[in-house]
Structure to design on (333 residues):
C-alpha cells in the first residue's frame, strides 16, 4: 500500500513535482526502515551531483540571511537550489523555523528553489543518516545546489555538516567573541569564515581575531592536504554585500579541494553506510517484545552472575542481533 504510493511519488519526482519532493522527504524524516528503503530504491538515477554547501554558526549571526542571499546569487546563474534547515532539538522549536521560512519567502514562488526544515524526531540514527537520504532525494529531483543550515552547537550538527563539500562558519560582531566560537569546536570545521553584519561596529576586530587564530593554526578545514587557508570574508547579508566574493570563494574551495564528483559521492556513501548500520543495530536492540529482548536479559543475567565473560556476552548479542537479516525486513518467526 505505502510502497505503491512511494513508488508513484518517486515517478512524480522525475517530472519535478515539488509536492512529491516534500512527501518523500517526510518519509525519509519520519518513516520506518521499510519506507525509507522504498524511497531510496524508487528514486530515479540523478542527472546531477549536487554541490553541498554547509552553513553553521551561533543563532542570530545571520545564517538564514546569508543563505537567502546565496540563493539569489545562485539563481542568477540558473542553478536550482534546495535548502535543508536543520532543527537540532525537536518538533517543538517549529516557531523559530517558521520565522526562517517567512524570511526566505522572497524565493517562495520560484520553482528552482526548495526550502525544507528538518528535525531528527523519532529517528534513532538522528540526522546523520536522515540528511544523506534527503540528499539522495534532492539529487534525484535535479537540484544543483543543496545548502544545509545548522546551528553549530552539538556533535549531531557537526556530523551533519560533515556531508557538506564546503563548510562556511558564520560569525557576527556582538554575539560572543571568536575565542568562544573556537572553544565550541565549530571553527575547526571551517573551510571559509564569514564575518556577517559587517555594517556593525566590531566587525573589523572580529575579522582580525579570526585571522589571528588562523595564524595560530587553530583552524583546520575539511581538506586534509592542508594547502587551503580558510579565507575570512566580510558580508552584509541583508544588503547582499560580499555575497559574490563569498560565492567565488566557495567555487575556489571546490576546485582546490579537487574532489571529482564520483569521489564526493563515494565519501558520502561511506559515511551514510556506517550511520545506517549503527542505526539498524540500535533499532534491533530497542524492539520491544522481540526475541532480542529476552536474549539481552539472559546474557546480562549470566554476565552479572559471573558465568559469562562480559565480552563473550557481547559476542552472543552480535549473533542474536541477526545482522544478516536485510535492513527493514520483518523478523523471522
Ligand atoms: N545589521 C545586520 N543585520 C543582519 C545582517 N544579516 C542578518 N541580520 C539580522 O540578524 C537577525 C538574525 O538573522 P538570521 O539570518 O535569522 O540569523 P540565523 O539565526 O543565524 O539564521 C535578523 O534580524 C537579520 O535581519 C547583516 O548583515 N547586518
Ligand atoms: Mg536561521
Amino acid at each position: 500500500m505505502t510502497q505503491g504510493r512511494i513508488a508513484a511519488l518517486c515517478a512524480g519526482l522525475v517530472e519535478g513535482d515539488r509536492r512529491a519532493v516534500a512527501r518523500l522527504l517526510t518519509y525519509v524524516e519520519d518513516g520506518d526502515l521499510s519506507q525509507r528503503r522504498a524511497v531510496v530504491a524508487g528514486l530515479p538515477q540523478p542527472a546531477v551531483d549536487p554541490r553541498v554547501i554547509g552553513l553553521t554558526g551561533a543563532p542570530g549571526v545571520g545564517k538564514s540571511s546569508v543563505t537567502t542571499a546565496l540563493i539569489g546569487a545562485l539563481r542568477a546563474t540558473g542553478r536550482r537550489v534546495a535548502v535543508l534547515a536543520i532543527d537540532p532539538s525537536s518538533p517543538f522549536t517549529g516557531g523559530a523555523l517558521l520565522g526562517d521560512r517567512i524570511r526566505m519567502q522572497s524565493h517562495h514562488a520560484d520553482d528552482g528553489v526548495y526550502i525544507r526544515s528538518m528535525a531528527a524526531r523519532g529517528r534513532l540514527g538522528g540526522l546523520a543518516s536522515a540528511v544523506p537520504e534527503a540528499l539522495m532525494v534532492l539529487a534525484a529531483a535535479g537540484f544543483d545546489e543543496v545548502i544545509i543550515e545548522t546551528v553549530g552547537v552539538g556533535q549531531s550538527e557537526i556530523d551533519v555538516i560533515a556531508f557538506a563539500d564546503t563548510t562556511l562558519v558564520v560569525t557576527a560582531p556582538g554575539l560572543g567573541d571568536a575565542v568562544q566560537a573556537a572553544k565550541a569546536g565549530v571553527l575547526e570545521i571551517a573551510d571559509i569564515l564569514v564575518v556577517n553584519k559587517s555594517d556593525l561596529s566590531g566587525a573589523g576586530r572580529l575579522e582580525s581575531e579570526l585571522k589571528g587564530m588562523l595564524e595560530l593554526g587553530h583552524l583546520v578545514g575539511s581538506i586534509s592536504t592542508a594547502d587551503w587557508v580558510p579565507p575570512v570574508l566580510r558580508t552584509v547579508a541583508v544588503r547582499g554585500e560580499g555575497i559574490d566574493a563569498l560565492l567565488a570563494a566557495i567555487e575556489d574551495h571546490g576546485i582546490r579541494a579537487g574532489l571529482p564528483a564520483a569521489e564526493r559521492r563515494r565519501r558520502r556513501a561511506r559515511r551514510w553506510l556506517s550511520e545506517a548500520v549503527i542505526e539498524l543495530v540500535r533499532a534491533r536492540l530497542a524492539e520491544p517484545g522481540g526475541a532480542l529482548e529476552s536474549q539481552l536479559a539472559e546474557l546480562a543475567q549470566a554476565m552479572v552472575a559471573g558465568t559469562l565473560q562480559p565480552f563473550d556476552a557481547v559476542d552472543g548479542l552480535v549473533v542474536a542481533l541477526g545482522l544478516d537479516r536485510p535492513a527493514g525486513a520483518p523478523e523471522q518467526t
Residues 184 and 291 are 42 Å apart (CA to CA). Residues 261-286 form the longest helix (26 residues). Residues 90-99 have pLDDT under 50 and may be disordered.
